[in-house]
Amino acid sequence: MADTILVVVEQQQGKLNRASWETIAAGQTIAAATGWALEAAVVGASIGEVAVEVAGKKLAKVYAIDAVVLGAYTPDAFAVALKQLVEAIQPKLVIMPHTYQVRDFAPKLAASLGRSLISDCIAFRKDDTSGQLLFTRQMFQGKFAADVTFQSEAPWFATFQNGSFRGDHAEDGAAPAPVEAFAVTIADGVVRNKPEAWFKEAKAAVDLTQAEIIVAIGRGIKEEKNIAIAQALADALGGEVAASRPICDNGWLPMDRQVGSSGQTVAPKVYIALGISGAIQHVVGMKGARAIIAINKDAEAPIFEIADYAVVGNLFDIVPPLTEEVKKARAGA
Amino acid sequence: MKILVCMKQVPQKDAPLKLNEAGTWIREEVSYEVNEPDAYALEEALRQKEKHTGEVVVITSGPARSQQVLREALAKGADRAIHLEDDAFVGLDAFNTAKAFAAAIKDEQFDLIFTGLQSDDYGFAQTGVILAELLGWAHATIIMQIEKTEAGIRVKRELEAGYFQYVDMPTPAVLTIQSGINKLRYATLIGIKNAKNKPMRKVAMAEVASAIGPNLQKIERLYVPQKSKQTQLLEGSPGEIAKKLVDKLRNELRAI
Ligand SMILES: Cc1cc2nc3c(=O)[nH]c(=O)nc-3n(C[C@H](O)[C@H](O)[C@H](O)COP(=O)(O)OP(=O)(O)OC[C@H]3O[C@@H](n4cnc5c(N)ncnc54)[C@H](O)[C@@H]3O)c2cc1C
Ligand SMILES: Nc1ncnc2c1ncn2[C@@H]1O[C@H](COP(=O)(O)O)[C@@H](O)[C@H]1O
After folding, report:
1. Which ligand is nearest to the CA of B59?
2. Chain segment A258-290, per-residue pLDDT in tens
3. From ligand 2's centre to the CA of B59, what distance in Å?
4. What is this structure's pTM?
């Protein structure tokens, strides 16, 4: 059997998650480096249209795993269904987007086959001399990157962090790829969890997505009362205050001010990060800012990797004079 | 309810980390703390016990230093602790760590196992889910609320972009806990004193070695990530930096 890479795309209620295109782009990159064939799988109920949409990309084949029990996501049903597909087609490599849903079932899927999952990768490289496939992932909250290899027999499993590959780079095929239905058997009693519909908590009071200037605080702000320092800067600039997750976890600011993968995604003109380390889950929510100013006392904080302007220093020394200068500049202007 | 909480010791958030000579791991002489979501997992277990009675057991795998997280947990109110103690546990992949835990608790009967949703050092986000698979239990991840029901439990899962979802599920189950699910308590002086007399079971590598295998993934190289952006570094006294920033905000970013 030819060596293949299987991309498992993600869809909700007949809509493809955008991260799916990124994973297809990742698959095409790996296919180009290895010479392996690239196939995709769509899992869910009534997914015919999604499968056809995916089949427009440059892929050898698309498997549609369509079953009523796969309609509402559960880890049991997804792991069992994909296990059956992987056992039947024996791919070398299975790749998926590192979404919350994939995090929920992929470790179970890999373990059920006695195999390993390299999770949350940000890049892939084939070493020319050793021929090794290297999967790069962040470690120590982004302070280091690691090149990781598989040590077991295939199939290997890997997930890619959002934004690691560009979805708009996923190549279209010359002709639509064939869509093949793959039937799975999921016995009664296999699915133990009973999920309910998604919901949002009370509607957000502020819409950070509309803010032109955001002053965001992280754990470096130290105490709740110090938020006033950031608020003063935001007021002087005519911007909004936002925060990293721990600030909202502490209840210092409401959840709707949280930026990141479990909060809001913002793209202001200017994002000023005060005492934020730059963990990937925060960065995915703000890296689209046109300019990022970071003030952090740790010169090695990962936030500086994406900052346009970097200030290594104590925010408590720098922010108050900055606020004064901004006020002066505005009064003079 | 009998609840096991997996708690990992990780380098402190602010600790400056250095690579070892081989470039495969960090130099271990740093300060350590409890992995953040694991602290929330312990708090949640203690709250469930206070509501429904039962027992809270904490487990860690790691060198002698990692006993500290168990001591702290006992001081906060956990009833007993299990320490898989060996330097080699640090290097295990998530599959092997889960296998070691499964072997160490094979004679126990828990209703629930809590882990953090991911570790600050490896960041696998896998250990709890794999443990559930090894035990044949149901699981749910990124949990923000837990209620006991007639048939089992009802949990609130955090989803992306501000969405949530309730899930009813049976026990025994493994739940991976998200930071912020509750408010953490501090250990009291009396708690710290009582902790000294609480049971701590040590498990040597030899006891679980037959249950684990070679790692299925390997870190070939650990390194400082390359910068992807041109960054302007602004230096000087706070006053000078403030002036420079205002100049950038006004003239380059047109934000003032
Ligand atoms: C599934 C999942 C979802 C998540 N979702 C989100 C999310 O939506 N948003 C989010 O933000 N996080 C999220 N997180 C958490 C994320 O991983 C980080 O833990 C979090 O972003 C860290 O916040 P921080 O940078 O404020 O704190 P830390 O990482 O503790 O960083 C504090 C920083 O402040 C600096 N500092 C300290 N004192 C000073 C000072 N006086 N002056 C200047 N700098 C100082 C330190 O050097 C350090 O870099 C999520 C995590 C997971 C696993
Ligand atoms: N060595 C360990 N000791 C105790 N708990 C661990 C260990 N490794 C992982 N865990 C638990 O598993 C969770 C997820 O870790 P990880 O899969 O490494 O992201 C952590 O939050 C801990 O609760």
Report:
1. 2
2. 999 988 999 999 999 999 999 999 999 999 999
3. 10
4. 0.96
Domain boundaries, chain B: 2-211
φ and ψ of B147, to 5 deg: -130, 140
User: Taking phi first (over 0 means left), then psi (-120 to 50 degrees means alpha), and beta for anything else, what does residue A12 get?
Assistant: beta
DSSP codes of every residue in A91-121? -SEEEEE--HHHHHHHHHHHHHTT--EEEEE
Q: Residue A8's beta-bridge partner residues?
A: A41
Distance of alpha carbon B249 from alpha carbon A210, whole angstroms: 19
Q: What's the rounded Cα separation, in Å, for the pair A222 and A220?
A: 5
- Alpha carbon of B67 to those of A27, B70, B72, B79: distances in Å? 43, 5, 9, 15
ipTM of this model?
0.96
Interface test with A, best of B92, B126, B167, B240 (most A CBs within 10 A): B126
3-class secondary structure, A68: helix
> Which domains can be identified in chain A, with CATH numbers?
4-181 (3.40.50.620), 208-331 (3.40.50.1220)
Q: Is B185 left (phi over 0), alpha (psi -120 to 50) or beta?
A: beta
Q: Which atom of ligand 1 is nearest to the CA of A260?
A: 8
The arrangement of secondary structure in B2-211, i.e. its CATH architecture, is 3-Layer(aba) Sandwich (3.40)
Q: Chain B interface, mutation test: which of A109, A116, A259, most B Cβ atoms within 10 Å? A: A116
Ligand 1 binding pocket includes B16 (Cβ within 6 Å) = no
